[in-house]
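seq:
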Amino acid sequence: MPRNKRPATSNDVGDIKAERSGMSVSNRPRREAHRVRGAFARATAAASGAGDGAPAAFERNMHSYLANQLGREIVGGAFPPGSLLPNEMEMCARFSVSRTTLREAYGVLTAKALIVARPKVGTKVRPKSDWNMLDPEVLAWHLETVPTEHFIDDLYTLRQIIEPAAAALAASAKSRGTIDRIAAAYAEMERFKDGGGDLIGADLQFHLAILDATGNHFISALGGLIHAALLGSFKLSWQGAKGMGHDRLDQHGEVLDAIRSGLPDQARDRMSQLLHDSIGDVREFLRRRDGNGKRGTANGARRNSRKKAAARKPA
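struct:
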């Protein structure tokens, strides 16, 4: 009596179609698909407590997970601007997803102006100038890949335009409630200055509270839009400022004192100086990181060269 066969799944059907069309189904895409889906399944199970809703949550959110994966790859340069993404069959095989899931993920990236689909051409990565850089996820993808000095410079240019003026407005407004929020955030920074808590989160709250203290809803909304980028830049800033953390902390205190005393010009100047020194910290960190990477590559090349030379020696 023949054994009962496992019902064919959408993945099996995709493999059969690929084989019929002459496309080989290698182990590498399978391994990558299992890795991606496995990681997402674990994250979904953890978020849902692994209850009965986990499978439904997996199917419902897989396209978001896929959009994040592809978004990071596009921003990271795996698919440069102007290049075509692999066709749907290849992408579905790579991630072991249905065409519906893939198209939903593409819809997310299209809304962020990262890609565009053209009939009889395919899906193409748009120029960087088209990307929605104020989208929180696009900003996060830049910082999750390898943030460049140019990207950080652009971010701090935006901050230099907005935040000193915001500090001056906050000093003019002198709203007791918002000043208390700024002071509370600064107190948290003092509490965590030696690394015993969420120093970066406290730094973020300090700057967002100043934006809110302006009383300008457009400026406050801007803080929400660039939340992810601010968080990432603060992380780099504090990493670059090892040994100088107390100086930066004192500068934050000077901004608070100027706002609390109702001195707009002083608040503007203190914030401008803080940002100027902070981007110096970030540049220092990035140069150290890139220098270490280059040294590691050079050391690896020398080791390979020695191995090749030893292999050429007669026994």
